[in-house]
Amino acid sequence: MFTDIELYKLSCDISRRDFINKSAKTIGGIAVGSFVVTFINACSGDDSSPTSPNGNGNGGGAVQLTVDISSAQNSSLQTVGGLLTLGANDIDPQGIFIYRQSESSVIAFSRECTHERCQVGSFASNNIATCPCHGSQYNQLGNVVTGPAASSLRRYTAVLEGNIITITR
Ligand code: FES
Ligand 1 centroid to 112 CA: how many Å? Predict the structure, then answer.
């Protein structure tokens, strides 16, 4: 039998060396991208004085999500103007949109509608994403084009280096 501290140390060891690889899923017939989630600094390096778990499953460390745009599921982001929809993940339980803004930059934002927190649907061919709850619409920059939502989708820090996009919380 493990004590709570032993279980926590075991959990930290797993968090340090493991990452979660999420494969592509299909939601409502629309394919969504694949990504990898990594927990960073999940636990103290000093095993002699473990900190208490904070209940969020990662010991309070940062969470990083990476998207490889060379992968077939994410190929829409190889072109400037491309959009990708990610499903629920450890950064955002409602999922994330990524927009290829230029050769060197991307924008990432939450799929959580700013009206009453429903999950916004994937982008249509006119680059508009619609919330199924009350019809709010957002453009590829995450800005509201049709209410009742009044504010833009929440943005995340996103960096593009080579074929890898890194999004941090
Ligand atoms: Fe999205 Fe109301 S929750 S429009």
Answer: 9
Residue 123: per-residue pLDDT: 93
CB neighbour list of residue 87: distance below 8 Å, 6 or more residues apart = 22, 25, 27, 32, 95
CA-nearest residue, atom 3 of ligand 1: 116
Helix (H, G, I), strand (E, B) or coil at 67: strand
Spans of the chain, pLDDT less than 70: 1-31, 41-60
Beta bridge partners of 141: none
Q: Which helix H or strand E contains 16, and what residues bound it?
A: helix 4-17
Q: Whose CA is nearest to atom 4 of ligand 1?
A: 134
Q: Is the CB of 113 under 6 A from ligand 1?
A: yes
DSSP state of 127: S
- In the chain, % helix, strand, coil (3-state, to 5) comes to 10, 35, 55
Ligand 1: centre distance to CA 165 (Å): 28
pLDDT of residue 3: 40
Position 58 scores a pLDDT of 46
What is the pTM (predicted TM-score) of this model? 0.75
pLDDT (0 to 100) of residue 18: 42
